[in-house]
Amino acid sequence: MLTYNVIKQKVHELINFLSQLEEQYLEVGIEEQEEIFYEQREKFNEEKSTIDYLNYSDEWISHAGRMIFLNKTCFNGLYRQNRKGMYNVPFGKRKKVTICDQSNLIAVNRVLQGVKLTIGDFQELSDYVDENTFIYIDPPYRPLSNTSSFNDYSKEPFNDDSQIRLADWVKLLDSKKAFFMLSNSDPTNTDPEDKFFENLYKNFTINKVKASRAINSKGSGRGKVNELLILNYKSE
Question: Measured between alpha carbons, how far is 178 from 172 in angstroms, rounded to an integer?
C-alpha cells in the first residue's frame, strides 16, 4: 500500500530511483544481477523494521522502489514473507526485465488521483459499502494439499477459520445489496469430496473457471486447473 501511495504522490521521484537501479542492474551479467537482487532484498527488509508506514518520509521512495524492483526480478513476481515478516522470495534469473516502466507508472499515478487508499482487516470496509458498491475479493487461496509450499503470503496465516469469517462478511455485503465477486481455489481439483466452498457459498453463484498455475518450481505443475469465481449476481 505504501508503494501505491508513493506512485500516487511522488511518482517522478520514484521513477528517478528506479531508473538508476535499472541502469545499474542491466549493465552487468546474471551473477552480478543476483548479487544486486539479494543486496536490495536485504535493504528492503531492513527498511521494513524501521520505516514509518503512516507518515511520509524520503525513505518511502526507496522502499517503494525496492518493492517494485524485487517484484520485477524475483521468482515469478511473488510477494511472500517468512514468519518474522521478512520478504523471502528468491532471485528470478530473468533474462529480460523492465524495472522502470515509466509510462505505466505515470498512467497509474493519474488513475489514483482522487482515490482513497486504505489498509486493514476486510471487515473495516463495511461502512464504505452500500447498494452502489462493487467489491472484488481476492483472499489467500485455500491450499489444494497439506504440502502446498505457498499456503500463506504473510506471517499471519489465512486458514479455514479465516475463510469462514470472510464468508460471513460476504453475506453482510449481500445484505447491503452490494455486488461482489470472490475468487479462490477449487478443492475438488485434488479431492472430489471436498465441498468446503460449495457449502460456504451455497446461496450464491459458483462458477468454475480454468486457470494456469504459474507458481510452481516444476513445469509439470503449471497446467490448467479449476478455480472458483463466486458471485451474488448473474454473469453472462
Answer: 9
CATH of residue 14's domain is: 1.10.1020.10
For the entire predicted model, the pTM comes to: 0.76
| Residue entry with cell 532484498 | 41
* Confidence bin at 150 (pLDDT 50/70/90): very low
Which amino acid does the sequence have at 134? F
CA distance 172 to 123: 10
Assess if residue 236 is contained within a domain. no
d(CA 89, CA 157): 17
Instruction: Check whether residue 94 and residue 136 sit in a common domain.
Output: no
Burial 177-200 (b: 16+ CB within 10 A, else e): ebebbbbbbbbbeeeeeeebbeeb
Write the pLDDT tens digit of every residue in 28-62.
999 999 999 999 999 999 999 899 988 889 999 99
pLDDT of residue 7: 98
Asked if the structure places residue 45 within a domain, the reply is yes
In angstroms, rounded to a whole number, what is the distance separating the alpha carbons of residues 197 and 176? 22
Instruction: Specify if 69 maps to a domain.
Output: yes
User: Which domain range does residue 192 map to?
Assistant: 122-231
- The two beta strands, 134-137 and 179-185, are parallel
Among 235, 230, 128, 129, residue whose Cα is nearest residue 175: 129
Same domain for 108 and 126, yes or no, is no
